[in-house]
Amino acid sequence: MLESRRQSVELQILLASAIIFFLGTLMLFVTNPYAIAPETALRLEMGKLLLSGLRPYLDFIDADPPTMMFLSTIPAFISAHCHCDIVLTALICGFTLALVSAAASTYLIAKSELGENPFAVGCFAIACAAISNLFIFQFGEREHLLVLLSLPYVLLRWLRTSEIEVAIPRALSQTIGLAAGLGFWLNLQYLLIPLILELAFFLQHNKPAPLRTPEITTGILSLGLVPAYLALNPAVGKIFCNLFVPLWFNNYSFPMDDHAKYLECSPDLRIFFYAAALIYVAALALRNETSMLYPMTFLSLFGFILFITDKRGGSAQIILLAAPLLLNSSIIIAIAARSISRLSSGGIKRSCSVVAMLLLLISFVSWQSWAFARAACLKPVETKLDPVKSGQPSEFSVWLNKYSKPGDCVMFLNDTVSPGYPLTLLNNRCPCPPFLWGYPIRLLADCNITDKELPPELINSPQQTFDQTYVDVELAKVIQEKTPKLMFIQQGRTEDYLRKHKQIELALLKNYKPMGEANQILLPKTEPAYISGCWYSFTIWMRKD
Amino acid sequence: MAEQTNKNALGFNTWKIFGPALTTAALLAVLFIILIHPMRIGFDQAKYMIMADMLWHGKTLYVDIIDLNPPLICYISLIPSLASALFNIPASLAFSLFIWTLSVYCVCMLYALMLKAKEQANWLLVNTLALSIASYEFILVSNRLRFLFEWGQREHIFMLTYWPFFLLRFLRWKKLAVSPWLAILVGAIAGCGMCLKPYFFIPAILTELYWLIQSRQRQIRPFLKVEMATVAAVAALYTLHFKLLSAAEQHAYFDMLMPLTISGYKFFERSTMYLCNYNFTCSEDVLVHSLCCAALTFAFVRVEPFLAPLCAVMFSSYFIYFIQGKGFPLHLFPLNQSTFILQNMTLIALYKTIREQVASASLFQKKLLGKNWFEGIIAIAALIMWLGNSCWQDFKQEISTNQFDLTSIGYKGKASIDDLAPLAKPILEYTNVGDYVAIIGEATEPNAGTILQLRRKSATRHIDLTMLGPFRYVHDNVPEVWQKFPNQLNDFIDQLVQDLKDTSPTLVFLQNGQTTEWLGEYKFSQRSLQNYEKIGEENYFTIYKKKGCDKLGEMRLFFPVAPK
Lengths: 545, 564
Description:
The structure holds two protein chains of two kinds.
Chain A lengths: L1 H30 L6 H14 L15 H16 L3 H26 L6 H17 L7 H19 L9 H15 L7 H14 L8 H10 L1 H8 L1 H19 L17 H16 L7 H18 L8 H25 L2 H32 L9 H4 L5 H8 L6 E4 L6 H7 L14 H6 L15 H19 L5 E5 L2 H7 L2 H10 E8 L17 E7 L2
Parallel strand pairs in A: 1-2
Antiparallel strand pairs in A: 2-4, 3-4
Helix pairs in contact in A: 1-4, 1-5, 1-15, 2-3, 2-18, 3-4, 4-5, 4-6, 5-14, 6-7, 7-9, 8-13, 10-11, 11-20, 12-13, 12-14, 13-14, 20-22
Chain B lengths: L1 H4 L6 H25 L6 H14 L15 H16 L3 H26 L6 H20 L1 H6 L4 H20 L6 H16 L5 H14 L11 H19 L2 H18 L7 H5 L6 H18 L6 H18 L4 H31 L2 H4 L6 H28 L3 E3 L8 E3 L7 H7 L5 E5 L6 H7 L3 E2 L9 H10 L1 H4 L5 H16 L3 E5 L2 H7 L3 H5 L3 E7 L2 E6 L10 E2 L6
Parallel strand pairs in B: 3-4, 3-5
Antiparallel strand pairs in B: 1-2, 1-8, 5-7, 6-7
Helix pairs in contact in B: 2-5, 2-6, 2-18, 3-4, 3-20, 4-5, 5-6, 5-8, 6-16, 8-9, 8-10, 8-16, 9-11, 10-15, 12-21, 14-15, 14-16, 15-16
């Protein structure tokens, strides 16, 4: 009796800690409603464009399946109808999703064999909250959304392989399947995850996990939503399948940016690799304690492979590697805590509890302080400085504020989402479809698609098609029509590539004048991530009005 | 434990015979390749051989011979250096034979340990491990670049010394008794391997942690074994030996080189993405391969529990690669090799699973699959074909190239000219065996290799100028450290100038580009090369000859009789 009451107290304390973690995230969003990840902001813009009637891939370019822009229509819709700030709305929507995902996942853990261990349930809830908290500047990016949407599904599938019968409400299973199906369509590679999971369960148990379950049914249904949309919109479907998917594959197989070796030579993200190595070994050692460690490890190994093969090393890309590790480490800690609580005397137990709580508190407070300090830096600069008069490279937001006004169209042409987003969205500037960002200019520039004599594999290739349609015609048209008030063109290969198109060069020189420079590398504001080509300055071109 | 022992009988007879035979064949193939390439040696390895030779000749480490690394590798290189002198064989060949002997030791110890623990002998396991190691040695030597960059490097030596220790510890945690003398030998050699670099203790620590967590009793007894004491004793002795070094050595190493190295080695450091995607080492493929093998380990660990500690070694290699942070091929070696072994072990686990499944079908049970020799014959045929074909191709390539007459440098026989490091021709034409030659360049390549192969002496205490970059890095980026050594760069150049004055080499090779620019800032040429004349350029080096010295002869070559 006393034992179970004490366990209940421990569980309550741990769950309260998880709620504090979540509150920390919410606090940061409310106090810094501009701390939105670049990709999240870009998809939000796409969500707005979708609501305004534009068609994806045809009217504006994107590299990935349309799931994320569809999801982004929800905050865009709420914001439009409730007249609230779109960024804050998106952050709150994401937060709600994180909360629901954590609640569902913790519920599933409580129903599993681990439910007997209050530390496991509590630590797992903390880990769920910590994922969003730790990757707060990647909040709402694809990798983060994938984890939120698919985590309950992974746990549910694991529960299905469990030897003990677990009754899960049918509606919950269906919802979990539906969410996971959407999550797996966030990126083409993620479609492999359900297959890998089922294979892992099969190898682990020498028999497949039950497939006639509600989550599988709704999962398959929701996996069919994107193909159904593409089939119902044949023009969109055709261009997505014939142009953007091949381009995506080409971009993916492209070698690493040579410049990346000189970026940030400090140990940077390696800490995640070391943690991964340790937690994988611990998971192997504790494999007989719980089989939950297996699916999470598989997910993490898959994330690790994606991180390496993607070659960009963005901090969002580490989420799929790190989040399952975090969850596994919570279970490992819970197993250790339970062993200590069973073995040791009352005094040792109390000391361990106090130390653990102190560590938790210190790590939370220090991380939160860092996050708040970092978020404050992300606020767009408001200054009366005239960058032309200063003659020095200035912040992008300074240029925007000084030489454009809300509602003006602006265009960023470089090979990454930042600095165009979230700046365009935060400053209420309008994008210039079809180019919301410079994808896939790097790919085109590196394969010298503008050369007169192309190798056979590039003739009539997706690269050439894109170059001859979107760049040569559409982009030139945008510049000729003087749609953007300001254009930010990254020097180096992006500018070289664009200038090889005579139409663009002529239109640019005729309609725009260079004003000065903005230098991304000088700015401490960008979230620590490798951004290829980031040390090239941007030339700012202003419309000749 | 129970999940494993039931499977041990599988393939016992087959593997007891064929396994050692295959391993021996692979090691003999390695020996063959070594013997037909007596001059082949990597640049770092050559440097340590030269340093060992200088030690034999009474020079003082870090004072008369400057290097940034801890001294153990120089001490180890004393063995092949002595063998080279005693048997009058090329130092490069002596070094290769030494490493080959180490690989023979490695596989012999694996078998010896398994024989000693015969009550639970898992022949499939030990044969796969031994054969994987032997095959990997062959892969290394049959690829010229991998031979140069990895064969005999510290990581390679460490892994060869570590695997027997690993198996010994595996047996200990299974509570199997092993002869104490064998344990002491394995522990002592493994201790030497681990002391080569501090990171090399990580695999041992991580695997011990794995076994500790995995054993439900959380017992301390397996730690209290003679091999652990031996490793600790070796590490303690090595640490204590620094106290026995002369005051000059201690001062040079601890007060100058070590702090400068710690701060300056960042000069070579690269970003994580670079380390993950370095084309030269194919690190992306290696990492992805290792992660796939890890996934297979998780899938098959129930079939073969030995996969788990092996996987722990593989993951500990991540530390070795990423902590060093330079992306050099040698740093990737432990990961490469452990992944290769893990891959083979997982394939064996897969084979066992499939075999059990198929054998359970009554149709095949007592027919073909019941006969273990059948798989053995297939395995030995495939391996012999691979080894034989690779050896034959290498031999054909070797005899079709121009041959260098080894008698011109006091040895017997011939060697392919392709195995000679660059800059050999002018050295052979203008100098004799034992003469001083100065090759002044930033990289270890080709300086040490050329000097060692041609039996010349380094004219300076700096066999290469590897440390020039790190010193300049500290000078430019870490002023708080540099202020403790404000004259280090001047002293460095003064040492070079003084050495050239003392040894007065006939030839001086000065690397073009950055090295010349950096040395130019200290007026090196004006101070040292006044008495020299430029006679040409080769391999990005400008060649200077001492005025008045004439050509002594021509490089003696044999041409293939009928090149095809």
